[in-house]
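Let's sit down with a protein and look at its sequence and fold side by side. Please make up or recall a protein chain and show it to me in full. Label the sequence line and the structure token line clearly, so we can match residues to local backbone shapes. Go ahead whenever you are ready, and we will take it from there.
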Amino acid sequence: LRQMLENELPCCADDPDGEPNAAPFNLVIVAKPRAVRRSLLRSRWNETTRADPATALARANIFMDRPPDGVFYKDRADGNERIELRLWLSPWTMEQGLVWIGQVVYGVNDANLFAEFFTPHSPAADLDSAVRFILQDFWYNQSVVRAGYVGGVGVISKDAPKTSYSGHEYFTAGARLVMQLSDEPVAFDETIIIYPDTPLTELSNDD
């Protein structure tokens, strides 16, 4: 799985023109559909519909000739931040679990901007912060069997951010989070760290 993720999976989704200029694939989930569903429910993620105009930019990200199979979001009750999770079912399997390729990004939850510019779906700013959030979120809800980081996105520094086709800048230490999820609760101290040779400290990104 690691070899495939680092050497075969492209860094980013395709834009509507078929070029790899959309948001990076910074998340990989290994799980059966029920485990994915239960993990999302435990953390109270909201699911969207294909017809929802608020997901237009999210669904413009293309992998294997199709938009995300699912788009989920969470809003912060004490602010205007929104985090969005986009998942594609891949053709790969591992230990009887399906492999889901994902993007997790932060955005701004503002009604006017949301309607006019779709800014909640911007991959702008620190992508690794969004990755850290989802790892903590799924670990706190006791869904994570194994977790670790692999390469594949490539380092994009804060001083020289990359711009996606939609005009949004982002930066990252270049790693992808890999999580194996369980449909039954997993105790905090039973989660296993995988790929320990990946320097996790690189994900601090000067924080």
